[in-house]
Design brief:
Radius of gyration: 12 Å
Strand order of the largest sheet: 2-3-4
Number of helices: 0
């Protein structure tokens, strides 16, 4: 099996991450912005771009 290095970059200020079952949920202002399966990620990076 080929392994990909998949990184989720969080650059939105105020974004909230949580785990629901086997997915990572990204919420912005209380609304779900993204759901992504945990098994597809290798890294999560937080940062603010200017």
């Amino acid at each position: 099996m080929k392994k990909h290095l998949n990184t989720l970059f969080i650059t939105t200020q105020g974004a909230y991450l949580s785990k629901e079952g086997e997915t990572v949920v990204v919420k912005i202002d209380g609304e779900v912005s993204l759901r992504i399966p945990v098994h597809t990620l290798t890294t999560v990076c937080f940062g603010v771009t200017k």
